[in-house]
Amino acid sequence: DITTSDETLTVAGDMSEDAQGVRRAPEDAGAALPLTPFPELIEVEQEDLYRPALDVPVGEEGPEGSNGVRLEEANSIDSASLAGSDGDKRLTNTSGMVFVQEGCFVMGNPMDDSFEDEVPAHKVCLGSFFLDAREVSQDAFSEVMGLLKNPARFQATGLPVESVSWYEAARYCSLAGKRLPTEAEWEYAARAEGVGLTWAGTGSLEDLRAFAWMKPNASGRTHEPGALKPNAIGLYDMSGNVREWVADWFAEDYYSDSAFNDPQGPASGSDKVLRGGSWDDLPRYIRVTYRVRLSPVFKNSRNGFRCALSPEAFNYTIK
């Protein structure tokens, strides 16, 4: 049942056991969702299914295949809060995510072999966040997005989803109650909370094959996330396998004007940033500092993603 007032949308009834990351509620439980500034964006994705943290940015229509989501740069609707009964519970599932502790680090590449958009190296401080330990898989993507057709070129249930646009990646994370990481968050996590290694997990080219799927060892295809070694905080495939969309717009000179605390990237742009390199790249292009710029509608088999979550996004209570 759904009832509304001027400020609140109330939803009551059973929750599906298939709901992503949501604990089953008592049969008589209800939830009150404060209406966002953009009430037209509240959608019922599936009967009896509630997905927490409806965090859908607003803007232009997404490309064909993005289910008509209206997305723009990281301007997002505040996550919904819940009211009901049965004690204090977290409703967003952080299973499969790594907690990345707050801290400061030097972002960018101070070495002589840096590319123009990797400099200047600059200090950045970030709050704590969660990040998916593995890249999003094809089966998870199809389930959450409600797709009958798998978009990936290299198709298998456990392989990372690829051939998805930035819009589709952002849509998935939103439906899962998460978001795309910022570029700074991604690099900080890839560096294992700021450690100055060249690649995620190692600074040794000789050891790199143990941590990353790349052109020399990937046999021309993606591989199951988590098959190789993780970095020091438990994140897999931050170098290689598939490039990963992040939230930020791209600007080549942004590092010269980046915010010190929790930078969010340029306010606008024409391209989005991808990080981490892919199965088809040489070691130089899977470094933790290497940046790729592509149109947010672009898709190919090198591009995938993983999601992030801010701690405050899941501190909902059932009273």
From TrEMBL:
UniProt region (Disordered), positions on chain: 1-37, 55-87
Cited Pfam families: FGE-sulfatase
GO molecular function, one term: formylglycine-generating oxidase activity
Gene3D superfamilies hit by this protein: paralog of FGE (formylglycine-generating enzyme) (3.90.1580.10)
InterPro entries: CTDL_fold, Sulfatase_Mod_Factor_Kinase, SUMF_dom, SUMF_sf
SUPFAM superfamilies listed in its UniProt record: C-type lectin-like
Sulfatase-modifying factor enzyme-like domain residues: 95-308
Annotated signal peptide: none
Protein's recorded name: Sulfatase-modifying factor enzyme-like domain-containing protein
